Amino acid sequence: MKMSVRRFISKQIKQTFPNNALHTYCKIQTLSNIRLLSSTTASNHKKRNVFRVLDGTISKTSAINNNNANFEKLSKLHEQFSKVASAGGGKKAIERHTIKQKKMLVTERLKHLLDDDADFLELSMFAGLQMEYGDIPRAGIITGIGKVHGKWCLVVANDATVKGGTVYPITLQKQLRAQEIAEQNHLPTVYVIESGGAFLPLQSQIFNDGGRTFYNEAVMSSQGIPQIAIVCGNCTAGGAYVPTMADEAVMIHKKGYIFLGGPPLVQAATGEIVTAEDLGGATLHCSVSGCTDYFAEDEAEALELGRDIIATLNITMNDNTTTISEEPLYDPGELPGLVNTDNQMDIYKVISRITDGSRFHEFKTKFGDTLVTGFAHVHGQLVGVVASNGELTEPAADKGAHFVQMCGERSIPLVFLQNTDGEDSTVTNGLKNGDKLRAQAKLMSVVSTSPVPKITFIVGNGVGPVSYIMGGKAVSPHFLFCWPNAMIGLTEPQVVAQEICASKESLSTEDQAKIYEKCNKESTAFYGASRMWNDGIVLPQDTRQVLRQCLSITRAYRPIQPVQAPVIRM
C-alpha cells in the first residue's frame, strides 16, 4: 500500500526529531533568526554616530590674530615657570645629589617606577614658585598619577635637591591635596621618600596640619586603598611614620634611613656616638625592628620591588581601552585664538574642539541659555558638560540642577568649563534677587552632593560665588585645572583695587598703581597655581588630552553608586 506524501514526511520528521523535539528546534531557529536580525540592526545602529556635530568654524580675522598674539605671551610665561620648576634645587644641588651621593634624581626614579613616564599626569607642577619665602620648585615634591603594571597609581616623591627635601608649608599642602585625590579616586599610593623633615623656621605653619598626612594614610589603608613606601634616603622626624604606617615598605641599604632623631640629635641628647646605619639603616629595620619589609641593595632594585608590590595588589581596573574614540573635527590648536583679552569666548566653539567628532547633545537649548548643558564623548567616554555662557540666571541655575541630577542618576562624570564673572549687584527687585539666589543655592547643593566625578577647567574667569557652584575648589572636584589666561578671586581685581584705594587717604598715583598691579598679579592663574588653588595650569590645546587621562583615572576603580532620590525637574 502506497504511503501518502504527508504521512511519509511526518514519519521522517518523527525519526529525525524524536520525543517532540521539533517544537524545540523551531523555537531555537526562530530565536537565532531574531538574534541575527537584532545583531544586524545593532550593527547598523553602531555605524550611525550619536549626537549632532557642532558648528565650530572660525574665520581668520584680526581679532583671532590678536587673541593668538596675546596668548603667546601667556604661553611664554608658562614655559618660564616650567623651566624653573623642572630645574629642581639648581646645578650645585643636583651635582651633590648625583655625583657625591650617587643617587638618582627624582625624575629618574619615576622612570624606573612607572610603565611609561610620558603618560604621567603631573599635578601642581608650579606649586611653591614665587612664594613669600622664595622659590620652592615643585614645592619640593613631585605628585602625579601614572601606571604601574597597567594600574593607575598616585605617586608622591620627594625631591632632595630642593632644600634637602625639607617640608615647607606649601609642600604639606601639595601632599595633602595629592592624598585627597588618591582617596577620591581610590588610587593605590606610592611614597618615594627622601626628606629631612619639616623646615623648622616655618614650623608654626606646618605643625597643626602636618599630622594629617599620617591620618590620611591610615584612613586610606582602612578603605582598602594600598599604601606603599620606598625609602630612598633620609626619612626623619615625623616623616618616619610614613613608611612605618604603609602596608608594605622597601628600604635601600646604606642609602635609606628611618629615625625620629638622627645621629647628631642622639649625641646632643645622650652623648652617644652612633652611625646612621646602626641607628636606622635598612639592615636594622628589615631584620630587627620590622618597620620595613623589603631590603634592596640599590635604588634600581628598590623601585623594581615597588613595581612587584603593585603587581600583587590583586585589584581590577575598569578598563575602557577598547572604547572607540574620534578626533574633533576642529583643531584644538585653535583654542587660544578663541580667548580675547576680557576672557570672553564662544563656548560652543570651545566644546567643538574638545569632544569626539565635535559632537554634542545639548539639553534644554532654549531654556536658561546662559548655562550650556549637554552630553558628549571624550575619547569614547560619555560625559555631562556644564559650561558657562554668561550670567548664571535663575532659569540657568534651575536647568543646571536638573542636568547635574540626571548625570548623578546615570553615573555620568561631569565636566565643568568655568568662565564666571562677579554677580550683578544693581538689581533692586527683591523677589527677583530671591528667586535667583534660591535657584543658585539649589545648584550649589546638587553639585556639592553629586556622586559622580567632577572635573573642572577654568577657561576664563573664576570669579565670585558662582565659581564655587561651577565645580570650583570649594565643592571638592576630583580635578581642577586652569588655562593660563584664567583670573581667580572673590571679585574682579580692579574692583578690589578700587575698594582698597578708596579706603585709604592721600594715596599717590604711584601707590595706587602698585595696588592695582598687586591685585592683578594675585588674581592670575600662575599666582593661584603656586599656592595650590588648582591642580595645575593646562594649555588650551592640551585640554582634551588631560581630560582623557582624568576620565580614565576617575573610572579606573569607581563603583557605581546607587542614587537614593529621583531626579527633580526644577
Automatic annotation (TrEMBL):
It catalyses: 3-methylbut-2-enoyl-CoA + hydrogencarbonate + ATP = 3-methyl-(2E)-glutaconyl-CoA + ADP + phosphate + H(+). GO terms for cellular component: methylcrotonoyl-CoA carboxylase complex; mitochondrion. GO terms for molecular function: methylcrotonoyl-CoA carboxylase activity. Residues 70-325 form the CoA carboxyltransferase N-terminal domain. GO terms for biological process: L-leucine catabolic process. It comes from the Eukaryota. The keyword Ligase applies. It is an enzyme of class 6 (ligase). Signal peptide: none annotated. Transmembrane segments: none annotated. Keywords: Ligase. PROSITE patterns: COA_CT_CTER, COA_CT_NTER. Pathway: Amino-acid degradation; L-leucine degradation; (S)-3-hydroxy-3-methylglutaryl-CoA from 3-isovaleryl-CoA: step 2/3. Its EC number is 6.4.1.4. InterPro entries: AcCoA_carboxyl_beta, ClpP/crotonase-like_dom_sf, COA_CT_C, COA_CT_N, MCCB/AccD1-like. Residues 324-570 form the CoA carboxyltransferase C-terminal domain. This is methylcrotonoyl-CoA carboxylase. It comes from Mytilus galloprovincialis.
